[in-house]
Amino acid sequence: MTLRDQTIFALSSGVLPSAIAVVRVSGPRAGQAVTTLAGRLPPPRTAYLTALRDGAGAVIDQGLVLWFPAPNSATGEDVAEFHIHGGRAVVAAVFAALLRVEGLRPAEPGEFTRRAFENGKLDLTEAEGIDDLIHADTDRQRRQALRQLQGLLGHRAEDWRRQVIEAAALIEAGIDFSDEGDVPDDLTAPARARIEVLRDDIAAALVASARSERLRDGLTVAIAGPPNAGKSTLLNALARREAAIVSPYAGTTRDVIEVQFDLDGYPVTLLDTAGIRDTADPVEREGVRRARARAAEADLVLWVCEAQDRSGPQEPDWQAPVWVVRNKIDLDAADAEAAFAISAARGDGIADLLAAVAGFASDYFGGDNALISRARHRALLEETVAALDRALAEPEPELVAEHLRVAAQCLGRITARIDVEDVLDVIFRDFCIGK
């Protein structure tokens, strides 16, 4: 019996203890598991309240049993669910009873979702959407994951792949049947027209999605600037909690402090860094080095200085946008040209700064209609565009057909309509057990 022929089970609900726990079983012996524990199979898709018993006839718990015969189930296999009380001892006893049923074993991480994929219930982008939905921390992450679960990219990729295959069929018909009287003399021109439209469509989707795959990790905003400019106070004001120590003494912050928070549905990591200055103190000097390095890796830098400070950052290694934030306007008014004039201590200007950062995040991630949610998707679409570019530039029909084959293969790898076992292993092993 292969792994795929075996019947698997796992806890598919939350952390124990809980009010209710759901134990899911999937595979050819799921029905036997139900009859062993519940005495009989209930009608399909009907909740059946019964006493659950172990192999010796002792009652484990009273719970609900649901039966989903193949192929009309989440995995496409026979599936059973036991809805029981969520005590650790109850779940352990149900697991022990299931282990005594021949052919049952505990599920591996992501194995339920992988079986759903392999049985045609999901394509790979939809399976990735499930994983992203489980791990979503903010509303925009949830919405992005739900769009993938509903097939946003998968359906587009399959449509693009169909168009590539149709264009390739025209090219190959011209090659293979050029001497047939009922085949038009020139099939290349309409094929190239299709390829050009398709190439522009995919390229536009890449541009519109900007850096949307980064939404899974969030936006990194570094707060940098000279010592004692109010960086830690600003961090606390933005995070709305006392995350960093605030002191009137320069050099208080020696290491990088990270705070994660939800900004209008966007996940944001704020970095409070050491004041950037020349110093003889070896510990503070290391803090300054780390501050410069983390700011160089950030997506946005807020350079915090005092209201009348005219000096700016002199950091050639920083590639991210740098916004100058003039702080302490409660002590000294900033000039009228200052884009962001705030009092981190009093709260003046903080709402405007947060709104600006939220707008930056929206532009950075590509808005709510972005198509791409993973770097894997972007890389494959970029490879597809490159293959289509080569096809358009190639005069020889045989080589055009080869470039189109590569483009179709790249699009097929997005939804895993072709053999990509190594990709599947990497993706599904990162799922939690029970999914």
Describe the structure in brief.
Helices cover 43% and strands 17% of the residues.
Model regions low in confidence, pLDDT < 50 over at least 5 residues = 244-254
> Cα distance, first to last residue?
22 Å
User: Could you tell me the number of beta strands?
Assistant: 12
Q: Could you say which overall geometry the principal axes of the C-alpha atoms support?
A: flat
Highlighted features:
single chain; six-stranded mixed sheet
Give the topology.
Layout lengths: L6 E5 L6 E9 L3 H9 L9 E6 L5 E10 L10 E8 L1 H12 L4 E3 L4 H8 L5 H11 L4 H11 L2 H25 L11 H22 L9 E6 L6 H9 L17 E7 L2 E7 L9 H16 L2 E7 L15 E6 L12 E2 L8 H16 L9 H19 L3 H19 L5 H8 L7
Parallel strand pairs: 1-6, 7-9, 7-10, 10-11, 11-12
Antiparallel strand pairs: 1-2, 2-5, 3-4, 4-5, 8-9
